[in-house]
Amino acid sequence: MIHLQCQLIRLSTRTINILSKKITYRHKNAEKLSLDTGPRQMIAVNEETSARYEAGQLILVDKPLHWTSFDVVRKIRGMLRIKKVGHAGTLDPLATGLLVVCTGKFTKKINEYMAAEKTYTGTITLGAVTPTYDLESTPIDEKDIGFVTPELLNEKKQLFEGAILQFPPIYSAIKKEGVALYELARRGEEVELKARPITIHEFELTEILLPFVHFKVVCSTGTYIRSLAHDLGQAVGCGAYLSSLRRTKIGALDVADAVSMEQFIESIRDQAAS
Fold first, then answer.
1. Which pTM was predicted?
2. Catalytic annotation, pick one of 92, 134, 231, 257
3. Is there a single domain that holds both residue 53 and residue 143?
């Protein structure tokens, strides 16, 4: 088991310039949103339903592709017309899967759910990198992967198992003096990142179809799978980025028990009509 050294890293001017030009995800991908994420389509929620969610409910949502986690919260808040709605752990817009949404008094349990270990599946693409470490930005610095073998990949992935230190992506919501790092990058300001302790309980390469590597990861809270993909590419020597991601578990909660946003909206409509 190898532990990464704790150090500060400084972003290149090239990366900062790329990110400073990046427009918001919602504006860039508005046409890809499969559902209206705003509260404009009002549903006449009955008092019993509203009171039940106001008192406190746990909603397991299978977050759609291209939605932000806040899109889900905003949609549910607008439909139910209650103020206390929150989620337990952000999923990036290009990720799908389990999003734990709490309402009313259940919002007090958010930190408990956020502290639980997470399980993800997804795909890493070898042979290039992106500034965001995923497909929110365009792949650059393409490299030959002819030398890459399953044996090499399995050897290098062991560097990231157990307790390690991980540098988060510059395009992340981590805050420095109250300002998100991605906002600093967009402004063209110099940004320093500090490695943070995480634990990778399990990192399995489930299928290797180069340049694609399918994986399963079980990890502690605070882990960035985008960074894991990037770091694996650096260790192998050909670059890599996260090309798909799905969260399947948060602690004992499973995406198999979650509902789609369409199903949740329809259930609220049915309750309103009854």
1. 0.83
2. 92
3. no
